[in-house]
Structure formats: C-alpha cells, structure tokens
Amino acid sequence: xxxxxxxxxxxxxxxxxxxxxxxxxxxxxxxxxxxxxxxxxxxxxxxxxxxxxxxxxxxxxxxxxxxxxxxxxxxxxxxxxxxxxxxxxxxxxxxxxxxxxxxxxxxxxxxxxxxxxxxxxxxxxxxxxxxxxxxxxxxxxxxxxxxxxxxxxxxxxxxxxxxxxxxxxxxxxxxxxxxxxxxxxxxxxxxxxxxxxxxxxxxxxx
Length: 206
Description:
The chain is an all-alpha fold. The protein contains eight helices and no strands.
C-alpha cells in the first residue's frame, strides 16, 4: 500500500517491515491508560477483558490435527459457538459504561451486526454436525481427512456464506461499519486507549 501511494509506510521497521506488528504491540502496551471521568472503573476495564478472555478460551479446543488438541470436548462445536456469542456482552458493556452516547450507539450497531450473522453461522454449524454426525471438532477434522476432501470443497456454496459471516462477525472490511474507522467517532471503543483498547482487536484476530 505504501509503495502504491509513494509514501514511507510500515516497511522500514526491520527487514521488509516484519518487526512492525511487534512494535505496534509494544506501543499499545506502554501507552498511558486513560479512564474517563465519572465512569465505573471496574466495568470499564472488565468489558475488554471479557472479549479477550472469551477469544483465548476458544483457542483451547481448536485441533492442530485429528490427534492433537489442548481440550478434546464432545460438544466442542457448541462450546465454540456459545463463547463466540458471549463476546457481544463485552461490546455492549463497553459502549454503555463509557458514559457517552457515541460509544453507546456504536455498541448497538456492532451488537446488531454480530447477532445477525451469528444466526447464519449457527445454521452452518448444524450442517457440519449433520455431515459428520458429531459436535466434536476432532471428529470433524478426522471426517475431512478420511473423505479425502475438505468441507470447503464438498460444501462450497456454504463455505462462501460462512466466509462472509465470519468476516461480518469480526467487523472486518467491508463489514466494518460498526467501528466506523473512517469517521471521526470510532464506535464502541471510542473512550478506550492503551492495552485495553488492543484487547478488543484480539477478538478480530481470532
């Protein structure tokens, strides 16, 4: 992007800019934590922690192969869906506890979008469970391995719907209207700074 626009971009930190993500993380960690006046400090810090912890808990059941996983749960797909759905509470809480109407309106927009696309994700999870006769993620991986074809091939139209749904669920472009990064007001995370601001964006990475 920087080369196209003929400007110095983040390609100067390390070789080919490979150290830039670590520099951004360090900058977020050491920046001053600003808590607005007349907010509930506990809830203000709790909101991003909820989304961050829920995202971390999801990693525990993601299988590396059909034999290697941190936690092998029989209802892993249901667990994954439940924890992903709970993340909306952290966003609503962040918008409400900021004690400002702009983050609150941004939280409502984001919550409406997340809940809408969770319906389609849930239906796709049901289809996957019917194809594998299991809610266990290890069984799902094993079924794809023994069938000699991934579900992205055999269920290609559904894979497209799933891709659109997860992009919208994590508020990535072009579904990033709730965060409104191109506008003056940035949505539910407007009053946040430093590392607790970065906690919200870990949910998008996951």
